[in-house]
Protein 1
Amino acid sequence: MAPSHGLSIGYLAERTGLAVSAIRYYEAQGLLEPWRNAGGQRRFHRADIRRLSFVMIAQKFGFTLPEIREQLSSLPGNRTPTKADWARLSEGFRRHLDARIATLEKLRDDLDGCIGCGCLSLPSCALYNAGDRAAKKGQGPRYLMGDSPDT
Amino acid sequence: MAPSHGLSIGYLAERTGLAVSAIRYYEAQGLLEPWRNAGGQRRFHRADIRRLSFVMIAQKFGFTLPEIREQLSSLPGNRTPTKADWARLSEGFRRHLDARIATLEKLRDDLDGCIGCGCLSLPSCALYNAGDRAAKKGQGPRYLMGDSPDT
DNA sequence: GTAATTTCTAAACCTAACTTGAGCTCAAGC
DNA sequence: GCTTGAGCTCAAGTTAGGTTTAGAAATTAC
């Protein structure tokens, strides 16, 4: 049931599909700030449903909880996102996603090149040099798949 | 240096760029099977460099260590992948990657639709229903961003 | 023949995002 | 007034993929 003033954690869980424990965890991470009733139980704003929905969607786009907290706290008065906020924030989502897709597409291209060129005999492998592990220690090209320049 | 018969773990680490601790961890996960010398130290085959390279590349494509172990153990005699094996395995990599890209592109399309249609006032949100969390409990559509059918 | 480096094992620790459990209190129904 | 269910806190467990630490033994370098 929906209490007339202040939502219980169980109701919020039911409405969002999140586990009660997850909501408590999000509070501990600073994503929500419920108040307490006389008995010490958490009471939430109706807008917190929207806030939690935003959290869930942002997670799908690959943001971490600290990043999501940043996004939420960047809103005036730490408010729950409005439609206008959403339009602006979703721009960032778009960029984040585009970057991830681009990374994977580059990996796919490298894979195609690697199949074609017979990577196993190459002294340096595009598959390894491409992507996030690259330029980790500035140690020059890595010799993969058992080959080395002197072999 | 490269010992003339049997590679030390440190040499393997140097050649692959992996940490010594990581190589030991991979052994514990069943990805490698070094033998021991008289003093009890691990000694590796030269082909294990190639084997580790395969592991690193497969990880970039999003496979877990148990999955990679499966792939390696599917090879006749649990051998290190040859060029022919590589051509076959890379097909699986390609499919894996294509699927991941497709998921993200669907998410991007849903996002674009959501910005345009004013998701905040929709009773059900494509952004939430799309993707991996969907169909988790068969509980029907989730009502996101604070809206419900009776509101 | 030392000294320095590497390697060994086992267990503990790490991050992220939660879940689970124990033991207790609060609220609601009859 | 009793029972049941929901909620509370705090600590520990979970998964993945490792890293760190400690103390001892092996190996290499000079």
Note: The first strand of chain B starts at residue 35 and ends at 36.
Protein 2
Amino acid sequence: MSSILHTKKIALVDCNSFYVSCERLFNPKIRRKPVVVLSNNDGCIISRSNEAKALGIKMGEPYFKEKDIIIKNKVEVFSSNYSLYGDLSRRVMRTLKRFNTKIEVYSIDEAFLDLSNFPDQDIEKVGKEIRDTVLQWTGIPTSIGIAKTKTLSKIANHIAKKKQSGVTSLINIENIDPILEKIHINDVWGVGRQLTKFYNKNGIYNAKQLKNKSNSWIKKSSNVLSSRTAMELKGIPCINLETTTTKRKSCVVSRSFGKRVERFQELKEAVANYCLNASEKIRSESLVAKAITVFVRTSPFQRNYGYYSNAKKVDFPIATNNSIEIVKVAVTILETIFKNGYQYQKAGVMLTGLSNANEKTNLFSSEKDEKINSLMKSIDSTNHRYGRSTLSVASAGVQKKWNMKREYSSKIDTADFYSLPMIRA
DNA sequence: TCTGGGGTCCTAGGACCC
DNA sequence: TCTGGGGTCCTAGGACCC
């Protein structure tokens, strides 16, 4: 006997121009103006208001290339403020959880929500209610796409973005082929630059064509991921909702420098700082790392200066999250990959093979380990209370000449943010 | 002058084993 | 000249995502 069949209904809720919307919350004067938010180091444009999009400012474009348009049109420019965006993101996600606990927080500004428990005929109305509630409680405008699979809900969302209501459902539409036909293949979730090239070569230019391609051909000439995408276009769910937060497998901290760096000493300071951030992060999640990779490189855009890029991975004797040990190993790696005479533009560290700290199968765990653990704990809580890098290690340096550029920060402090009232009507 | 950062998964190929 | 065959495990690199 089959249980009562509900149509599977997945919503993709996506915050509109998220970083710009966050800045606008605290700055009503820029509500109707063109606004952009820049990546770290004020390098690229990573969020644009509709007004900025209308001016032809492209996503991911280097800031300096768009500077003329920006000045001419008095576009408001902001350096990114990730702690602010993170706080607002959590608030949006909390609001979404009130509608259904079956939620996958997919990125800082997106979540998949299982709405199968609502009747098919009400689904568009439910979508609108979610949108209104998020807007009212957090001030963040969203777009919502609803369909039978994640891949289709992405497409529905794509359409919703251009609609006044901000909500699109494909649930009650008998034949969605005419809709899929209008979706360019490169706008399909999971199809990037390389796959687009490959599909085009094989006469596939839109989502409908991919949907109708035989599964065996796709699997044979591409891979399982591509065949999953095609199945999902057919309305057969192949990509599950990941509702439980699984522990991460790696942790990367890397930055481009505000200025080019040539001296070993400065590179060392930068790498030591990245190690401190990374180890603090994995400690906060009770993880230990099996290995560390350190990498350095010069700018790939200025090859005439001589390009150099190198990386090296080293296993720790015992999986660890000890800052001091991690910095020590990182510095020895840096010594082996550093070469004089180059203008370094970026460096980073990657902690890999992460596992639970308490599952340590370490026969040699000792009193000394206990001492280190409690030292790390007190460093973390002090830094949490008084600001990052209150307590540090000597090699991390104090001058930080290489530090990021952030000329246009709105300087909104999340401490202030928490004191703001939450509006419920 | 100035080009982000942080993830995951898959696959091919090498090392190693019997 | 001819130099097995098949399995597992690991890693680096590629492709994709936001």
Note: The longest helix of chain A spans residues 264-284.
